C-alpha cells in the first residue's frame, strides 16, 4: 500500500510517499512560500533532488505539483494516481474530540474546525491541505493523525490548570500536549529495540528540536507532558519562552507599550535560546561554536536549556515513581552530543553513567549509557511520517 503523508502549514506543505509494506520512502519534498512566490523541492528515492520556483497561489496548486511530480514520466515514482492507496494528514490539534487517528469524514472536519481556536496557526492550514487533497483525489481514503491524541491518556490531575473549573467546562482550557506522534513512535520503537512489551515500561522521551517537549510514558501511555494549552509552554525552545510567570505578559505590555499580540509575538519568536543568547542564534551549532569562543550568553543559553530538560525529567521520574529508560530524539536530541551529556550530568543521582564514545554518535539508534547504568539512556531518531503511515494503514 502506498500512503501519501501530508503535513500542511499556513504557507508550506511537506510530503512523503511511503510504501507501507517495506516502510521505505519512495519520494519526499516540500512546497514553500505558498501564496507568495512559491518554491518546490522534490526528492525521489532513486533520483536527483530538484528545487524550482513555481507559482502556488493556494494549496490546491501545491498539491497539483506534488501529484504531477510523483507521476512524472522521467522522475516520478508511480505511474498514476491510482497507485496512491491512502493519504495521511498530520493535524496539530484534536482537542478532546480525538484520542486516536481517524478516517476523515465531514463530521471529523467539523470537529477539527472547532479546534481552530486552540491552534489558530495550524488547524486552518491542516484543513486547507485536506480539502486540496480531497479535490485532487476524491475517491482516496484519508486519515487525520493528531499531535494531541497521544496525550489524551493523561489523568485530570496532570492536565487541569488551577483556574476556575468553569473555564475548563466552558472553553476546554487544559493541558493538551503536542509532539504526540513523535513521542508515541519513539516509545514504541524503544520497546521493540529492548524486546519488551510497551505496557511494561517507564520511559521519558525528550523530543528536543526547535520546538521541544518532554513526556512521561508509563506502560505505553502518556501520563504527563511539558507542553500545555499551546506549544508555547514547557521547555525554553529555539525561539519560544516556555513556561514563565504569566504576570510577565502584563508587565512587558505596560513597560514596552505593547498590546497582547505584540507580547505574544516576543514570547513565540524572540525568546527561548535565541533570547537568552541575546539574539545570537536559535541553532545549537552556532551556540556551541560561540560558547567555545568564550561567548558567555551563548553558554548561558545552552546551560539554561539543558537545566530545564533535566528539571522536567526529574519531575517525571517522581510522577511515575521511577524510570527505566530516557530517550533523546528530534533534531537536537539526535544530533547534539553536548546537550545529551549536559542533561545527563544532572541525572547522575539516578545511577546514570554515560558512555562518552557512544554519545558521540549522531542521528542513529544507539544506547549511550554504560552497561552498569541503572537507567538506560538511548538515542532514537523520530519518524513522524512513518508513524502517520502506520496509523493510516491500521485504520484501513
Describe this structure in words.
With 396 residues, the chain is α/β, with parallel strands linked by helices. It folds into two domains: 145 residues, 2-Layer Sandwich (Nucleotidyltransferase, domain 5), CATH 3.30.420.40; 185 residues, ATPase, nucleotide binding domain (Nucleotidyltransferase, domain 5), CATH 3.30.420. Helix content is 38%, strand content 19%. The chain is built from 15 helices and 14 strands. The strands form two sheets. An eight-stranded mixed β-sheet has the order 5-4-3-2-1-6-8-7, sandwiched between helices. Strands 11-10-9-12-14-13 form a six-stranded mixed β-sheet, sandwiched between helices. A hairpin with an 8-residue loop joins strand 13 and strand 14. Helix 11 packs across helix 13. The model has no long low-confidence stretch (mean pLDDT 93).
- Judged by helices, strands and strand pairing, the structural class is alpha/beta
Which oligomeric state applies?
single chain
Low-confidence region ranges: none
Major sheet = 8 strands, mixed
Total domain units: 2
Distance between the termini: 10 Å
**Total helical elements:** 15
- CATH class placement of the largest domain: Alpha Beta
Residues in helices, as a percent range: 25-40%
Q: TL;DR?
A:
This protein is an alpha/beta fold. It has helices at about 60-70, 105-115, 125-135, 155-160, 165-170, 180-195, 245-255, 260-270, 270-275, 285-290, 295-320, 330-335, 335-345, 355-360, 385-395, and strands spanning about 1-10, 15-20, 25-30, 40-45, 50-55, 85-90, 100-105, 140-145, 200-210, 210-220, 220-225, 325-330, 365, 375-380.
Amino acid at each position: 500500500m502506498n500512503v501519501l503523508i501530508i503535513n500542511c502549514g499556513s504557507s508550506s506543505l511537506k510530503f512523503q510517499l511511503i510504501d507501507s509494506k517495506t516502510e521505505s520512502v519512495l519520494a519526499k519534498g516540500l512546497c514553500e512560500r505558498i501564496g507568495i512566490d512559491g518554491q518546490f523541492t522534490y526528492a525521489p528515492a532513486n533520483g536527483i533532488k530538484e528545487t524550482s520556483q513555481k507559482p502556488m497561489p493556494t494549496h490546491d496548486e501545491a498539491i497539483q505539483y506534488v501529484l504531477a511530480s510523483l507521476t512524472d514520466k522521467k522522475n516520478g515514482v508511480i505511474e498514476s494516481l491510482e497507485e496512491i492507496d491512502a493519504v495521511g494528514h498530520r493535524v496539530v490539534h484534536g482537542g478532546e474530540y480525538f484520542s486516536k487517528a481517524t478516517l476523515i469524514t465531514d463530521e471529523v472536519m467539523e470537529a477539527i474546525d472547532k479546534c481552530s481556536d486552540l491552534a489558530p496557526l495550524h488547524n486552518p492550514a491542516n484543513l486547507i491541505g485536506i480539502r486540496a487533497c480531497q479535490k485532487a483525489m476524491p475517491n482516496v481514503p484519508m486519515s487525520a493523525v493528531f499531535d494531541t491524541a497521544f496525550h489524551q491518556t493523561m489523568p485530570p490531575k496532570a492536565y487541569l490548570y488551577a483556574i476556575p473549573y468553569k473555564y475548563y467546562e466552558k472553553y476546554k482550557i487544559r493541558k493538551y500536549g503536542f509532539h504526540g506522534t513523535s513521542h508515541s513512535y519513539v516509545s514504541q520503537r524503544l520497546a521493540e529495540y529492548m524486546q519488551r512489551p510497551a505496557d511494561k515500561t517507564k520511559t521519558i522521551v525528550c523530543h528536543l528540536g526547535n520546538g521541544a517537549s518532554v513526556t512521561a510514558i508509563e506502560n505505553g501511555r502518556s501520563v504527563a507532558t511539558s507542553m500545555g494549552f499551546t506549544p508555547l509552554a514547557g521547555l525554553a525552545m529555539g525561539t519560544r519562552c516556555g513556561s514563565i510567570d504569566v504576570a510577565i505578559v502584563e508587565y512587558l505590555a505596560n513597560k514596552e507599550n505593547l498590546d497582547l499580540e505584540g507580547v505574544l509575538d516576543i514570547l513565540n519568536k524572540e525568546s527561548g535560546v535565541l533570547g537568552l543568547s541575546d539574539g545570537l542564534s536559535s541553532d545549537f551549532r552556532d551556540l556551541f561554536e560561540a560558547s567555545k569562543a568564550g561567548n558567555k550568553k551563548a553558554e548561558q543559553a545552552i546551560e539554561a536549556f539543558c537545566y530545564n530538560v533535566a528539571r522536567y525529567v526529574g519531575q517525571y521520574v517522581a510522577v511515575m515513581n521511577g524510570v527505566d529508560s530516557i530517550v533523546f530524539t528530534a533534531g537536537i536530541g539526535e544530533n547534539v552530543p553536548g546537550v545529551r551529556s549536559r542533561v545527563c550530568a544532572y541525572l547522575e543521582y539516578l545511577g546514570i553513567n554515560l558512555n562518552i564514545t557512544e554519545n558521540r554518535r549522531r542521528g542513529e539508534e544507539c544506547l549511550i549509557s554504560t552497561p552498569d547504568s541503572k537507567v538506560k539512556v538511548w538515542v532514537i531518531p523520530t519518524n513522524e511520517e512513518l508513524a502517520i503511515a502506520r496509523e493510516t494503514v491500521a485504520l484501513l
